[in-house]
Amino acid sequence: MLCLGISGGLDQVHENRSELPNAFMHDGAAVLVRDGQVIAAVEEERLNRIKHSNKFPSRAIQYCLSTAGVQLSDIDRVAVYASEPYANALLEGMSARLQQSAGSGSMVTTADASIPLGAKVLVQHLLAREFGSELDSSRISFVSHHQAHAVSAFAMSGFERSLILAIDGCGDFLSGLLAVGSGTEITQLEAFPENNSLGLFYLETIRYLGYGMFDEYKVMGLAPYGDPAPYREIFERFYELSANGGYRVYLDRIGPALLRNLEVRRKGMPFTQQHRDVSASLQEALERIVFHIVRHHRETTGMKRLCLAGGVAHNCTMNGKLLYSGLFEDIFVQPASHDAGCALGAALIASNELGRPAPRERLQDVYWGPDLGSDCAVQQELNAWAGHLEFERSDDVASSAADWIANGAVIGWVQGRSEFGPRALGNRSILADPRPAANKDRINAMVKKREGYRPFAPSVLEEDASEFFDLPDGRHEFPFMNFVVRVRDSKRALLGAITHVDGTARLQTVSRKANPAYWELINAFKKRTGTPILLNTSFNNNAEPIVDSVADAIATFLTTELDGLVVGPFLVKKRAATLQDWTALAVSLPPYTSLHQARAYTAGDRQETVCELRTTHSNSDSVRVSHHLFELLMRIEGESVLGDLLDAIGPDQGKREGLMEDLRRLWEQRLVRLHPSQAARVQQNSDKTPD
Q: Phi, psi at residue 388, to the nearest 5°?
């Protein structure tokens, strides 16, 4: 029995259908389960390279089908991560707005086709258009958004019975639910309305700290630098706790109060102690409300275990405090708790309805994404970048990589299948020595290009975790970076790069059984240093999602200051590429990028024609480019060799070098693609026969 769960938007990567409601607009994913067991899962962002992709997960679906060796017509049920009445209501609202602007009609016109309204018909049409196979409507179902969150956690927990809390911003006109799971059934105890959203409570506050949607985790990292006391009384006006675990948040009070009592931070401005204190107060308020809810229901239901899901469940600090509180004997947090995880829940709900529930087993890993491919395929990709990379094959890649790291290198590490969810768990990671405190600042500046206060996570051998971290009794498995735990006092000075300002760390324990390659690397580092821990952060820069393919890894390696790259059995370093090496590359525009000229005011309040690159990303800014660069980009036809384009511009060497530098900056921002041309690939791999 094959069931496919999907989340995400209802338009394609090259479309910008701004009328579609935000509820369908982020974290696209596809998950395929066979008889209740996951066989493939990936977020659309990993494949289309758009963070928090708000597009229909076409590539993710194709990956799942290919992995299983099936066609769409072989799928028994496709389950969508929202209830059908909710989806229809949102689409009806969109239709009304379109009719107001267009006069009349019942079709949504896109770049490719006219799509009939009605959620099931729309999904049916998109699947048929993308995969050439029209599923009968009886094989398409819709599931409650928060039910999908809840099932994604409980079905993966291994618990026979537990309390379940699913909380996020919004979905299905709600912001969460509380339920009891027993066997394969979930009984809802309470639903939280959208106007009582803890996710929106957090989001509304961080707007005044210069942050927005998807930045919540940054504020969680900032909070330990602050003191909640100065703003505690103000924050207590923003919410109210009531009997029986009840609560109320007052979103409309947040803005006026903070405007009166806080110097509002704009994006890019430095943080003041006020901003740090507000972050601490916000975190304290969230924790107080959640504890109030679960404490009451723990007592009334007698449940000794807790499952968490929904975007708020990514608040690892809150999760850690629940863990240490002793309220529950065990807590399971779904690793992909955000909306991508709803694709998992939707697939499992459909499978259960068809008589194939998930086995009652604890989730051990989420390496469900695309594999690197064969060693031969990896080597061919590396060969294609011969002017930019040098590499060698190692018979003991773990030892070689451990030597690099022990000698101070910061490396990219790419192995096996990619992880499902927002955490790099040792297959698509940037790794470094966890001991020198300077490594934190170095990686924040040279690779991630992000705020210096942001902490990094430790990956520790499971069997050594309790020596370095103060773990609750009986707990030694933390494979998903879901909990902030205390670093032992005696180890904090040693682990300077991964110990946060409050003496904590967001822990990942690594099992030899779940990830032998990563375990071997950490163990090799332990043999050299006595420390069974590595600093682990996601392999990406600030402009892109986590890398997935070998090509992604090479692009990120070449556009950051990483010292080395380990991909499969290959050790990779950078060459000092010449201008000729660069101009031999092909350049192309991603499908989400387009070129525009517009009249705008420039310096001196003069109106001039400006040249811009725009994308179909949600809330993305346009990027201005010079007229010369715009002229070059306009000459691109699909894929164009960069040298040919520069030749057409003229022979001026200084101008050529300047345009090349501009293109490299755009590449760093992923607004253009630089890559070996097809002709170069053929030539390189005919010259270098794979092992």
A: -115, -20
Angle between helices 653-668 and 642-649 (to 10 degrees): 140
Beta partners for residue 188, in sequence order: 179
Cβ distance 606 to 664 under 8 Å? no
Q: According to the per-residue pLDDT averaged within each range, which of 102-106, 318-322, 622-626 is highest?
A: 318-322
Q: How far apart are CA 642 and CA 596, in angstroms?
A: 21
Banded model confidence at residue 104, pLDDT cuts 50, 70, 90: very low
Stretch (H or E) spanning 590: none
602: exposed, middle or buried (Cβ count in 10 Å: 0-12, 13-18, 19+): exposed
Q: Closest Cα partner for 143 from 291, 6, 256?
A: 6
Name the pairing type of β-strands 623-625 and 606-615. Answer: antiparallel
Orientation of helix 273-301 relative to helix 316-325, angle to 10° = 50
Q: Is residue 334 within 8 Å of residue 366, measured between CB atoms?
A: no
Q: Which pLDDT belongs to residue 115?
A: 45
Q: Are the C-beta atoms of 304 and 273 separated by less than 8 Å?
A: no
The DSSP code for 448 is I
- pLDDT tens, 179-194? 999 999 999 999 999 9
Q: What is the pTM assigned to this prediction?
A: 0.94
What pLDDT is stored for residue 151 in this prediction? Answer: 98
pLDDT for 615: 85
> Over the stretch 529-542, which tens digit does the pLDDT of each residue have?
999 999 999 999 98
pLDDT at 649: 79
The separation between the first and the last C-alpha atoms of the chain, rounded to the nearest angstrom, is: 40
Interacting residues of 517 by C-beta distance below 8 A, sequence separation 6+: 398, 415, 416, 426
Closest among 97, 143, 184, 205 to 345, alpha carbons compared? 143
Judge contact between 314 and 394, C-beta under 8 A: no
In angstroms, the CA 623 to CA 233 distance is: 43
Query: What integer pLDDT is reported at residue 688 of this predicted model?
Result: 58
pLDDT exceeds 80 at position 220: yes
Predicted confidence band of residue 40 (pLDDT cuts 50, 70, 90) = very high
Tell me which residue of 268, 281, 290, 381 sits closest to 690, measured CA to CA.
381
Give residue 95's pLDDT: 60
Q: Which of 334, 329, 332, 333 is nearest to 302 (CA)?
A: 329
Three-state secondary structure along 457-522?
EEEEEHHHHHHHEECCCCCCCCCCCCCEEEECHHHCCCCCCCCCCCCEEECEEECCCCCHHHHHHH
Q: Residue 669's pLDDT is what? A: 93
Distance of CA 665 to the CA centre of its chain: 23
Residue 265: both structure tokens together = 């931070």
Taking the C-alpha atoms of residue 614 and residue 596, their distance in angstroms, rounded to an integer, is 7
Q: Which of 448, 667, 452 is nearest to 542 (CA)?
A: 448
